[in-house]
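Journal club prep — side note

Before the paper discussion, L.F. wants everyone to see what a predicted structure for a comparable chain looks like in token form. Sequence:
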Amino acid sequence: MKIAIIGGGISGLTLAWYLQKNGVAYDLFEADARPGGNLRSWATPEGYLLETGPNSLQLSAELEELLADLGLTDQIQEAAAVSQHRYVLRDGRYQIMPGSPPALLTNGFFSLKAKWQLLKEFRQPVAPIDPQETVAHFFRRRFGPEIVDYAVNPFMAGIYAGDPEKLLINKTFKQLPALEQQYGSVLRGLMKSGKGAGRRRIINLKKGVQTITDTLAAKLSNYQPATTVTAISRATDGTYQLELKGPQGLEAAPGYTHLALALPAYAAAPLLEPLFPQAAAALAVVNYPPMAAVFSAYDRTAVVHSLNGFGALHPKVEGTYAAGSVWTSSIYPNRVPAGQVLFTTFVGGTQYEDAARQPEEAQKAAVHAELSKFYGITGAPRWQGRYAWPRSIPQFDARIVEAHRAADALEAEHIVAVANWRVGVSVPDCIRQARMRAGLLAAEK
């Protein structure tokens, strides 16, 4: 057995790491000279340590074990205690979002009507599972429209760059329909199963999230950066051959029994097209909306708001320019110069695509104007920067269904997909699935 892994993001690197630990032969090819894909930490000359991908990570059991395995436990940086507070814009001002079902009833964020609908959820009739039901339809059916507008919508825009009216509940939060079916109520199911009990620890690494992928790459024996896979072919014995373009020019790498696609769906599609045109067509239409992160630093004295939390999200009904901001300096104070605060503002996603396509200077100006309005900021920013993804987070909407079916079918051809469009968009999701897949492949030896 020999496996070619195409793509050196967190999924491909983790898969390679666990294959290596299991004694499985592999080669990992990454087109970029730098490993990590969207996990990128940016240290600026002005003294800011920024994340252009995920700003923080939930410390799952698999992530914690991987960090220990890599010798990075002492590099874990806990989020500040204030990060437990999450804010949402409502009626033009930021209010703390309740963090648990009981708090939903006692906090003043939701109206009495919305609270009554929450209580009624325990007795709502159970609907048959509908594979095409959207996140918004599910929550509206179980909890009412206000919960969708002021909780579900901003969460999906801020975390998934998505629109709950399009994302499928069965693909995004499939455990919730399962709880409805098993317990007759989502809230009852959360309480009895313990799945709604508290948040996981929120962390980063002292030198940034990129520390994980840099360390993984450095420990891999068969990692080949700056090497693009330009084509895939198949020999008469069923093994795969890759055409490569790397530092040495064009070359061929034959004899792989398995391929692991750790690529975005749009990048995997053209490679698959000659051999598997139907699968390629399904992957090619997966939606990756544009997104930009705009970083804005101010003197602390210029900002009226307390910034006592993780950040603030914007419901679409509030008519804002951006999806919201993470208060980077509140979560990790040592990442900005003393006496300053830093906002990481997200522009784009499926609900804000027009803003995502504006020029950089227009985005920076619009973000500054919106921050000034809602946070009581006076004066110009001390510094601004931007990082743009023309294609950001894959959307688990109707178009992902055929892509997942295609991935299922490809497994019979010894091609496995481990990218985030296949397994879930969070870093812990990718690590968990890559580790599981490595174990399954090792069992085939």
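L.F.'s comment for the group: The first helix runs from residue 10 to 21. Keep this in mind when we get to the figures.
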